[in-house]
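DATA SHEET
Item: assembly model
Revision: 1
Owner: S.N.
Input lines:
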Amino acid sequence: MSRLSWIKKALEVGVVTRKYPFEHAEVPEGSRGLPEFDSSKCIGCSACANVCTPDAIRVVDDLNEGVRRVEYFVGRCIFCGRCAEVCPVSAIRITKEFELAYKDEVRFIIELKLVKCSNCGKPFTTTRHLNHVLGKVGEGLPELMTLCPDCRRKSTVNSFITPVGGTV
Amino acid sequence: MVDVVKTLYEVLGGKILRHEVIRDGVVIDVRPEDLVSVVKGITEGLGGIYTVVVGVDGRGIDNTYHSIYVFSLDELKTYVLIRVRLSPEDPKVESITPIVKGANWGEREVRDLLGIEVLGHPDPRTLILPDGWPSNTYPLRKDFSYCERPRLDNPGSNYVPQRSEEVVALPYGPYHPLLHEPEYFELHVKGETVVDVEYRGFHVHRGIEKLGESRLTYNQVPFVAERICGICGFVHNVCYCQAVENAAGIEVPERALYIRSLVLEVERIHSHLLWLGVACHVLGFDTGFMHAWRIREPVMYLAELLTGSRKTYGINLVGGVRRDVNRDSIEKVVKILKKVKEEYDHFVKSLTSVKEVVKRLEGSGILPKSEAISYGVVGPTARGSGLKRDVRVDHPYAAYKEASFRVPVYSECDNMSRLLVRVDEVYESISIIDQLIDKLPSGPIMAEDVEVPEFREGFSGVEAPRGEDVHYVITGRFSKVYRWKVRAPSYNNIPALKVMLHECPLSDAPLTIASIDPCFSCTDRLVVVDVLTGRKFRVDLRTLARRGKL
């Protein structure tokens, strides 16, 4: 093997550097890039924000306006795709998109209306989330569903207690 | 495992207060005053090689601090974890560095981060904490909140370099001119000869152990673990998951184990090709560098095909993997690897025919076998010094039991040996992938019941391209880990540079430093210094996203 073999090889393979970005860069099928959020499907359950390691997805409740905002910040995203995995309504899809330079801080915001507790008036979840759960449990206990977790707990306990010598 | 316990009792006798067999190892409890003699028994009596020192703030478990000294018993194929429990008010323990040189950093780290005083340490300077760190503030203690950011204005804690009068101190860093990572070597030279080296690292210590223990749930940690290293991140990911699986006794489905091994080997091939390129570049042989990286590119494509990402694969969770491989991608893997092997063959033959390359590599950066054992070096650095140790064989994990492969060992102890080890390993990795693909079993890829009970210990090792990577985990409450300790391979290899660089010509120093394939595990933050006021402040990502508008 002589030193000329390097030159021979170089001539054989030619130029391998691609003229990106003037030339399209191909990524294999199933490559993980930008997550795409379908705001018409999102129920605002926060499952994606819970599993998100870098806090790229945040869920913030704006009590003044009565809305829940699901924010996605591409600068923090590590493109692991856990959000799409745990989404109960498949509102998140992982695309192959990787050219993500973007001028704003937050890339997606989904605004969803909050439901107020029918007892104490505190907002506790979104209308869509509630409807989603109602759809799952069927005709079950609709009167309990409109209560916030705290009031629901109290109401359940109260329903078991038999008042002795007066009201509780 | 019964044999190992029996052997331990034969050698150490009554010094063992109690033992517990865990997956992959044995934990023995000893009294702090017996520690040095027990360590002597393990190293001299059983040929144990130093692995890591783990400090635990166990005040939330049994109201003591733990210091755990881990040794690898390669012949018995197990790890032994020697644990001493120390008083919660005044934790103190005798140093083992005088008998095991490798423990130097480990003990200083435990002292810096947990405040466990080490008595009789030959070099008790600060190792990890930055200059100006306040005294009596220990970041890994449980009463130190993750959000706390102490003021760095304690002049007493500044780092003082050690050097004699006759030498010239030559700074090499803080940014390595060749590897673009934050590290600082102070080469002490006499004329053209390097006589000593001082290393100052941890410039961008990220405190990910604290992050993992305080903010993340156990299934979020793998994604952070993967970001410890930009080149061999997947080994950390696998190693962490295995440690938790070992602690919780989770059985991982066979197919998931195969996929882990497959991806680990793909990672090894790309890492070694990257290193070969860097080695050529360090030698000033840029033609070799270009070709090595050209051959590496299809391997990166393979990684993306198998996992969905060129780097930071993110396919692991505790209990298995998230992404299956299909027949299409497997066919592509076989096809591409065949081509890579041909190209690589040609590259290696051409490289070793260049006389200048061979002459620079041969006889430089000598690390004798005895020193290699004492420093507990790992991976190609150990195998280039005639030590036959490889976690894949000594402590088999994933699907490595199912593949037959050779562990290349060279005993010339120089830079050439370390290069040849890596050259041979690429061939072995390609062969392992072929074997595993042939045998790939069908079935689920994720364990069904993944439940992690609290306060269980787990230990795991993985053979990274740079050597043995180990993770230690104590599970905690509320889906969190109580303690997560990481020891990356370069942590054991860098201190041995002191030996390799001794009496070496200055011109060989960059090559020798590169020969251990150092990985400084960094991510940079932007620090702005206002020159008028001298005020320093960090800019976070959200501010950067607003184009610097504060």
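QC remark: Residues 30-114 of chain A form a domain with the Alpha-Beta Plaits fold (CATH 3.30.70.3270).
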